[in-house]
Amino acid sequence: MAPEATIFIVDDDDAVRDSLAMLTESAGFAAEGFASCADFLARAPYPPRACVLLDIHMPGMSGLELQAELTRRGIKLPVVVMTGQADVPLAVRAMKAGAVDFIEKPFSDEVLLDSLRHALTALSITTDDSAIALRLAALTPREHEVLVNMLAGNPNKVTAHRLGISPRTVEIHRARVMEKTQARSLSELVRMALAAGIEPG
Hints:
- This protein is α/β, with parallel strands linked by helices.
- α1 links the parallel β1 and β2.
- The N and C termini lie far apart (about 50 Å).
């Protein structure tokens, strides 16, 4: 049976590339690994049905720089960015630059495969802008402040200090933000906020 699509894995860690290749191939994809962004760019042309799984921290050309170069060349491949837990601001920048999704390490096999399938089928956002606006409008002013801090990647303690509330109260507000927006993940929340023009604080 022909592969569902090709997943280009761009990561400088050999073990990570091999592991991700095995996982994606077991899910029915073809997989190609690249140790650098330059190697990936040299691979062109690309098949029509493909997705880039990109580590945001790369030696030489970074993941963000690769995104910019793909845009400059007019290469329209969906990009899923892999980030560390402290890299939310970078992930926000990547999504502003056109990344379909980001996933935080360590991630489960299911989260990764779901993200890739969504990227390939353009189903990562199934909610229209008006519905997103209504959900965000339901946030209280304090919850909106917490959302802005979430987009900036601020830990609860930092957010608590900035807003003059306790870290526990921040946790409660974060949970309410996720509940009211119906976001299933931080990356989905980021997509909603960016679509509504909300900037990190």
